[in-house]
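I had to read the description of the data format several times before I understood it. The format is easy to grasp once an entry is in front of the reader. For illustration, here is how one protein appears when written out as sequence plus structure tokens:
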Amino acid sequence: MSDDPSKAFDSLRFAAAGLLDVVETTSYGTPALKVGEKLLARVKDANTIVLMCPLDEKEMLLEAAPEIYFETDHYKGWPAILVRLDKIPSEELRHRLEQIWLRQAPKKLVGAWRAGKG
């Protein structure tokens, strides 16, 4: 992959399509997606994204798919997981972002989104 982080952000954008009130912003100087003030995901570098992730789920993902998910010492004990962008299938990235959004978005927004899907 190249050193250009814009392709990584394009992947995040595509995966988040259809989720309500997702805004493009920055986090730690890199492109990021938020719902309200809550971070969903950000680009770490051209090959890696950071997804917010509950610690119990993080441990499961690290064990189940170490080729996709990993962490560095900086992220140990933090509710975020690193993702190798070239290893994660687009459907799985979409699913992960949707799950993060469902946890981070206001309940009223989640209800409106679910009503639109049903």
